[in-house]
Request: fold
Amino acid sequence: SLGEYEHYMLKEIYEQPESIRNAMRGRLDDQDATAVFGGLNLTPQQLRSVERIILTGCGTSWHSALVGEYLIEELARIPVSVEYASELRYRNPPIENNTLVFGITQSGETADTLAALRETKRKGHRTLAICNVVASSIAQAADGGVYLHAGPEIGVASTKAYTSQCCVLAMLALYFGRTRHMSYEAGQGFIEELRRLPAAVQQALTCDQQVRDVAKKYCDATTVLYLGRQYNFPTALEGALKLKEISYIHAEGYPAAEMKHGPIALVDKQTPSVFIVPRGTTHDKVMANMEEVKARGGPIIAVASHDDPHIDAIADDVIRVPQVPGFLQPIVTVVPLQLLSYHIALLRGCDVDKPRNLAKSVTVE
Ligand code: F6R
Reply:
């Protein structure tokens, strides 16, 4: 039931500290400084022999796959490719031996994701599901998998399932990393950071009032750009998708540095850009990209770290989030973007839980 909330989407956004906690419950192993999963059905030999990972899904689940690519490559040093399930199923790419294929899906019923997994399984590859709905078609079709335990997601726009997917992918990166070269100490450090995550997300939710003010200012925009780099590039794509699907405002997500290769031509006084720019390796570069937008008169909304002293001088509006390590940032920085799309959609009179033309699970190809 909705309880104190006006919409399922808002309820599910607010459930995220808890849903992330549930994704981690029983899966962090302090003794061995690794993650444990009950249902991967992989022997240690099979695990070690993995040479490549394919992550596939659709929509928001495809965005979490992009986060997974950064995570697994950085922490486990296993090459990862991310594929739209709808393309993978017909593209017939050569897939090397010892490739592990993960289908990522909230509903477990998405027709293209199911077909992509079936096709790769038919060719003899091991297929696993990262899935929310227990005993769904994809969970059953895969050789094994990891459940999100996020609880039912009713709002059509995916929110808590996305952050839980990112969290499960982070734990998988830890797990694969620890079977290879990640040290005991590094594993322990990683677990500590994961344990801090629910509190960080809780703190990120306190930006709600600030986000409402930003929503009022920009709810009449016709195009919004979302820009971020590295771990926050997928966040830019996800922020843009959330805005499109529930407020019907045209939005595009880009790696911030790609701006100057075309999209910057869209910038004018009526076209706001949302920069996801927490402190980290590319922070200064993204600030430079921000200056380029500002010089062309584009309004700037920044999602930034609490203690960033320079951001107010450039951005028109700043939404502050707690600082977490780069590889966990997507789970925190997406929260204000979920809220922003929610408040803008409300101001525009849209049906946030049931946006036009969309279904919660897409069971046709
Ligand atoms: C976006 C959204 C969709 C789904 C996509 C995949 O908010 O909900 O883009 O993410 O249809 O659905 P699942 O994850 O159920 O396979």
Q: What stands out?
A: The first helix runs from residue 8 to 14. The radius of gyration is 20 Å. The chain has 14 helices and twelve strands.
